Amino acid sequence: MTGSTDVDIDATDHLLKTTRAVRRRLDLERPVEREVLLECVSIAQQAPTGSNQQGWSFVIVTDAEKRRRIAELYRDGVGEMFTTMAAEAKKLGDDTTARIYSDADYLADILDRIPAHVIPCIQGRIPESTDPFAGPITTSMFGSILPAAWSFQLALRSRGLGSAWTTAHLMREREVADLLGIPDDVTQAALFPVAYYTGETFSPAKRPPPQTITHWDGWSG
Length: 221
What we know:
five-stranded antiparallel β-sheet, NADH Oxidase, globular
């Protein structure tokens, strides 16, 4: 039994359950309109942030040469990692995981052709690990940008756009920051390749029952 709400629960649940990582079903020829991307950023701005600081920024890259360079850095960072992990998963009989890594490898190959790269950022940098406050500060920083980034992806999905949450470019974060003029005191959280998706349907992923991951009144409950 639910309380009174002005939200369409079925539509909301469908959006939440079918916003998938899209790597292969991306339209590489159709441009993504600036106005649509700004609408999605506007929705992301409604996400909660630590201490209401709202230190988010979204760097959107549509310039072909900059996308090409980001893709080079991305591929340089991952090397043969995805190919190796796909082969290992296949050897273990885990076809689903093997397919995911294969798709990730494919995404790396076509990254420069994807019309928009979106990099969600947050003001601040992670302190040195010897700092006793490093853990809480790190949690607060990413707790402030990740809800906005996920809201952005949900907004994309509702408008017929696909994306995948990637972080491999962070192995070359400094070079990407230099390329895009991102200040030294700003942290990049992810890279979303964004394009209109092809096809019509996405299905919920298979997950274990919620009871298997829920603990009542303590870990043992």
